[in-house]
Amino acid sequence: MQKIASFQPPFRLLMGPGPSNAAPSVLRAMAQPLVGHLDPSFIHLMDEIKGMLRAIFQTSNDMTFPVSGTGSAGMEFCFVNLIEPGDEVVVGVNGVFGGRMADVAERCGARVTKVEAEWGKIIEPSQIAAALKQVRPKLVAVVHAETSTGALTPVEEISRLAREAGALFVLDTVTSLGGCPVKIDAWGVDAVYSGTQKCLSCPPGLSPVSFGPRAMQAATHRRQKVQSWYLDVNLLASYWGQDRAYHHTAPISMNYALHEALRLVLEEGLENRWRRHEQNHLALKSGLAEMGLELASQPGHQLWSLNAIRVPAGADEAAVRKKLLSEYNIEIGAGLGPLKGKIWRVGLMGENSRRENVDQFLAALKTLLR
Asked: What is the secondary structure of 192-205 as a DSSP string?
């Protein structure tokens, strides 16, 4: 008989682009006994998760629930339900995840118009307005918080432009939900998705989504079936809605964890949580300035939860990251695409957005850069 030791992961301070460290109570929640996915107690949990997600998304949409899959599944959920072959789609691309939205839309058969900005810059409303003069799209999609660059794009004006053009507005909030204001109803967002492992500080594996009335109208009046059976909102609505019809075996323990993570967010209070993320971002930015370092994202539009730090001349970007991990147990992220080798991505998300973590990181980075 082969004996294999139980896996014992090392402790890491996860200050990269995600996942973030989860609160101890979130991890304990995952160790609770399993129940069936149609058990009355689990159905009660589902109702509470929906209610808490509505509060955190700032929406009254009934069709608000976690898709069983990571944030990328939430992205696919939005596009496969709302796009049919031949539809015109406008996508803002200012980093990796805008590019990924365009790719997914094309795979759904859409004719995609990309509205592009330099990585680190925001998508300007004027760019969207110019694109809407050229095409009449079914939907407009933008990344609120671009994880690859640390840029936070204001979306209220873009949403208004989309609505005036008769288009649906789809928003990626994977790195913003729970870390800065996200106001789905006030901003007129028709469809939104996020992830659990960033500012919600829950392990990866679920993707909170929300469809407003216009999005549900489009999804229920399609010319043909949704290409994905697993992500079809028309089927999932029967499971997460009042019918509770069997669709798939939900990840029970992950929903336990999400319930506890959402409970912690609301217990802290959204305004307090947003303020905490902002204050720690500013503390990091101030400490970096004292070291002669700066953020690479556009001034005035810098994301609180994900900070893109320019690598100073003469520094070995990869070596610094490796030593932070091996000598200090601190994980940070590398740059992607055109920013590869040029930035470090430092997350201050959810549980990890704490002043002591900022100070610990700054002290370690200062030592290594000497």
From this structure: EE--SSSTT---SS
How far does Cα 72 stand from its chain's mean position? Answer: 9
Q: How far apart are CA 263 and CA 265, in angstroms?
A: 5
3: three-class secondary structure by DSSP: coil
Going by C-alpha positions, the residue among 18, 339, 345 that lies closest to residue 174 is: 18
Contact criterion met (CB below 8 Å) for 324 and 252: no
Nearest to 35 by CA among 242, 261, 259, 249: 249
CA-CA distance, 175 to 95, in Å (whole number)?
13
How many C-alpha atoms does 133 have within 13 Å on its Cβ side?
Answer: 6
Q: What tokens appear for 66 in the block?
A: 């976690």
By the 8 A CB rule, do 155 and 184 touch?
Answer: no
Q: Using CA atoms, how far apart are residues 195 and 75, in angstroms rounded to an integer?
A: 10
At residue 127, the 3 state secondary structure works out as helix
Give me 321's structure tokens: 């990251």
Indicate the SS3 state at residue 310.
strand
* Residues 123-140: tens digit of each pLDDT: 999 999 999 999 999 999
- Supply φ then ψ for residue 152, to 5 degrees: -110, 110
Q: Is 59 helix (H, G, I), strand (E, B) or coil?
A: coil
Residue range 356-363: average pLDDT?
98
User: Could you give the percent of the chain with pLDDT greater than 70?
Assistant: 100
**What phi and psi, each to the nearest 5 degrees, are found at residue 73?**
-65, -35
Nearest to 15 by CA among 245, 292, 226, 284: 284
- CB-based contacts of 293, cutoff 8 Å, min separation 6: 309, 310, 312
Residues 6+ apart with CB under 8 A from 125: 157, 158, 161
Is the predicted pLDDT of residue 243 greater than 90, yes or no?
no
CB 180 within 8 A of CB 37: no
The strand pair at 306-310 and 343-347 is best described as antiparallel
Distances in Å between the Cα of 16 and the Cα atoms of 162, 170, 174, 321, 351 are 33, 26, 14, 10, 13
Distance CA 192, CA 173 (A): 7
For 79-92, what is each residue's pLDDT tens digit? Answer: 999 999 999 999 99
- The CB-side HSE value for 342 (13 A sphere, CA atoms) comes to 12
CA dihedral sign of residues 305, 308, 314, 318? positive
